[in-house]
């Protein structure tokens, strides 16, 4: 649902406000490509698993469900805000270095996220890895490389969007920062780390993995 909301809002914002500048088109395409890929991936994963264990408690608790639903709306609009400002801006300067740096960060983060998801899916599909934690590929240098890619790509889109900013619009940097805090402090990493600690926390192999592998940033512990 969150992914489809990203697609709809990005498309409508472009349709209603774009004036054929390439920055507006590229920025919107980056969002739509990310949302479509992630939405399909998560949908298939949940259908195969039959559930999303991170959301199980919320489904049976109206207060938790309302909080999750509301936070999803906040997540979508704040994550999109820099790009919304960019596409609606009348100050569409010629493409420059800032645009290419931002889209380069987006592309690198997108590739990291896809590769991390692919490696974990392949790992889970191997019966020999049942009840084991993944520690190969990108997962050998970061405990959550998919989230690392996610955070990187949204900071990249902020950088490219900022080519149109002026004044207070630069404060929309709080949007990718919010996304970072949401992933690292609320809904993403804390839930997965808690689950992993309960499942493997008593094993020497997992303790060594946690000790030697950074939570998010490769090569920085």
Give descriptors for this structure:
transmembrane; membrane; transmembrane helix; Steroid 5-alpha reductase C-terminal domain-containing protein; 221 residues
Could you explain how this protein is built, in words?
The chain is an all-alpha fold. 70% of the residues lie in helices and 0% in strands. It contains 9 helices and no strands. It is globular.
Summarize the structure.
This protein has 221 residues and is mostly helical.
Secondary-structure topology with pairs:
Blueprint: H1 2-17, H2 22-49, H3 56-59, H4 62-88, H5 97-124, H6 145-161, H7 174-186, H8 189-200, H9 204-212
Helix pairs in contact: 1-2, 1-4, 2-4, 2-5, 4-6, 4-7, 5-6, 6-7
What gross morphology would you assign? globular
Please provide the ordered H/E string of secondary-structure elements: HHHHHHHHH
Oligomer: single chain
Mean pLDDT, to the nearest integer, reads: 92
Amino- and carboxy-terminal Cα gap: 34 Å
Largest sheet: none
Total strand count, please?
0
């Amino acid at each position: 649902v969150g992914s489809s909301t990203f697609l709809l809002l990005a498309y409508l914002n472009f349709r209603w406000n774009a004036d054929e500048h390439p920055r507006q088109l590229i920025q919107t395409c980056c969002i739509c490509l990310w949302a479509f890929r992630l939405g399909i991936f998560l949908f298939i994963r949940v259908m195969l698993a039959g559930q999303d264990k991170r959301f199980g408690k919320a489904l049976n608790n109206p207060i938790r469900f309302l909080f999750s639903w509301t936070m999803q709306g906040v997540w979508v609009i704040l994550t999109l805000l820099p790009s919304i400002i960019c596409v609606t801006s009348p100050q569409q300067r010629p493409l420059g270095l800032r645009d290419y740096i931002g889209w380069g960060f987006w592309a690198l983060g997108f590739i990291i996220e896809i590769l991390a998801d692919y490696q974990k899916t392949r790992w889970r599909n191997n019966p020999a890895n049942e009840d084991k934690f993944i520690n190969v590929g990108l997962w050998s240098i970061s405990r959550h490389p998919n989230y690392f890619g996610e955070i990187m790509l949204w900071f990249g889109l902020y950088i490219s969007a900022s080519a149109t900013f002026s004044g207070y619009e630069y404060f929309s940097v709080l949007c990718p920062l919010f996304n970072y805090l949401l992933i690292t402090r609320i809904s993403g990493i804390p839930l997965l780390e808690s689950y992993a600690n309960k499942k493997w926390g008593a094993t020497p192999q997992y303790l060594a993995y946690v000790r030697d592998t950074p939570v998010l940033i490769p090569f920085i512990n």
